[in-house]
Model the fold of this input.
Amino acid sequence: MNKNMNFIDLFAGAGGLSEGFIQAGFEPIAHVEIEKSACNTLKTRTAYHYLKSNKKDDVYLSYLKGEITRDELYKNVPNEILESVINLPIEDENNDEIQSKIDNYLGKNKVDLIIGGPPCQAYSLVGRSRSKTKMVGDPRNYLFVQYAAYLEKYQPKMFVFENVLGLKSAKQGYYLAEMEKLFNEKGYLIKLFTLNAKDFGVLQNRRRIIILGWQKNKEVDIPNLEEIKTESKFIIEDLFKDLPIIKAGEGADKFLKYKTEATEYLKSHTLRNGIEVLTQHVARPHREQDKEIYRIAVQKWEKKQERLNYNDLPEQLKTHQNRTSFFDRFKVVAADLSYSQTVVAHISKDGHYYIHPDIKQNRSISVREAARLQSFPDDYYFEGEREGANRTAAFKQIGNAVPPLMAKRIAEELFKVLKS
Done:
């Protein structure tokens, strides 16, 4: 541990929130995550940060090129660094074990921050609409109780709790009220902010709730996160322009070359940050019928800037029985707009809502393009359970993530508060 401000990341996912805090100068103590694939991603990213800080970038570069295996990459990193990624569900029966591991990494240091947000399905409007029970009785409704247990144990100066907008309306606001009451019992006041990633340099329309908490016996000047906005002159084309042209089912997991130099956006927002090796630019294969729909959707946007309404398709192309909702289930990520539609975990199931704007490529977006929409740097590698390309696992992790650029701006504000 160095003298930087530190944090524990709970429900860490693929590490988008953590990445932003690291970029802002914070030091991770531990990441706790239930999903094995996401933990492998966190380990690889932890390896990247360790190797970079020890001027061994070439080892990580060799991994991105496919010259060494994941195990060989990890052999260049001390075990205690890799083991700070804890692959366990946060629940009563595991908390002693998790906290024992955290205590080992923490040593005599105190915790500055706890960050993270429990899985959002229990609070999301879509999650509730798809659930037969409307998520009533789902244990994920109460994961904030586990979060509060870590606040009580580690007494961080502040905490950051991220979640979906539906948290405000779930059970008519009951869960949010219970949260505030419980956090208060643990010694914390909270303030809730409704933020949009597009206001933080991310080229994506993504509205989320951020709850900041602080010790109620301390005088803290809480920044108004809703006033922190970054003016953007960039469009989606600036995000995709340098990537090689690939068609459905094409691309490579490791070591592709960029088509052109980095755009101003990619350089100024450090998505291309020095490592000139492109990974995970892989597109899923599509049926001919879907590709025909994609062509229609792209042409409609190019000619009239109109979105495709599913019911307007030729009858032979309409296979969904639901004709009364989700009319925009096929949607182009328009190159000439300043932000895309929200990237969600459903992208792991199909890409119809994320059609590439170039009709010549006629496909849904690749893993790398989805990662860029979420503002992950190109040297961020998304792992599966086993080594090797795992497109589905990568898409799921990306869709569930907090955009690192948004996290970084929040972290920069909190860094100032904690240092004062």
Notes: The chain has 15 helices and nine strands.
